[in-house]
Amino acid sequence: MVRGKWFLAGASLVMLSVAVGALMLLRRDKPAEKPDESAEAVLLPEIRLPGIVSAINVVPVPAATEGTLEEVLVAIGEEVFESQLIARVKNTGLESSHEAAKLEFERLQSRVTSLESTLIAARLEASRAAADANRSQAEYDQAQKTAARQQMLYEKGATPRLAFEKAQKEHAAAREEHELLDQVARNSEERVRTVSTELDAARIAFEEARAALEDATAELAATQVVSPVDGVLVGARAKAGEAVNRAMEDLFQIAVDLSRLRVVIEPDPGTLKRIREGMPADIRLDDDPSEVLEGAVATVEEERVTVEFPNAGAIKPGVGAQVRIKLP
Hints:
By secondary structure, the chain is α+β, with helices and mostly antiparallel strands. Helix content is 50%, strand content 27%. Helix 3 (92-155) runs antiparallel to helix 4.
């Protein structure tokens, strides 16, 4: 019995030794845990991150037509004023349409002018023809009366044959002249009506051509990109020689009201959690690191922080800056 007890005790000791050895082996092979980076981040008293100064209020300038950006007249960072020409867009289709509309307008304008002159001349001619017809009518009426009287006298033997025959000849000549001049007058009046109808149609076509030219001119004017406001040009989506289209609602960007500016920074996730809106911030411009501008955190988003600050001087968007925020 004693001997069996010693045997069991020895076996238990061996198993315990094996377990301890295995545990030590596992601890030796287990990789060392990495330090908690977020914990180190929490220990930082402040952050300093770079950013670019930008405007808070920006007005987009769209591309009013498609084509090729032929020329850009204002550089980024330059001031612009309302209605100032910023760039030109080349659109050969619009240029061709405008040229065709202009030629048609000029052709119809010339036709209207010509028909107006023709109508004036036709009316003058009709007036003269009517006067001649009226004169011939009076002469014919008088010749007819004279011929009738001479015939009556001749039949009664109270006038010579030569006088009778002369009156008949003058009556016939007056009638022939009157019929001719009356036809001329009617033809002149018809000419006036014809020219007047042509002129009315030409004027209608001319007004349509005028409207078409105005539309073509307005479309062509869209190739002239002008500034809608006073401000500073801070961005452009295309360079000279590149294609543009109507979908570019912000072909150019103009900053207005530069009394307040902003800088956007991108802290690491751990630091981002410690930043709150309204926290004070210092801004140092790369152009003049010695000057410290006081600002505050305006927004805290998923990956970035926006810091706003007053612009008491002549700071323009686009310059680099360093932002310092003291962390709690």
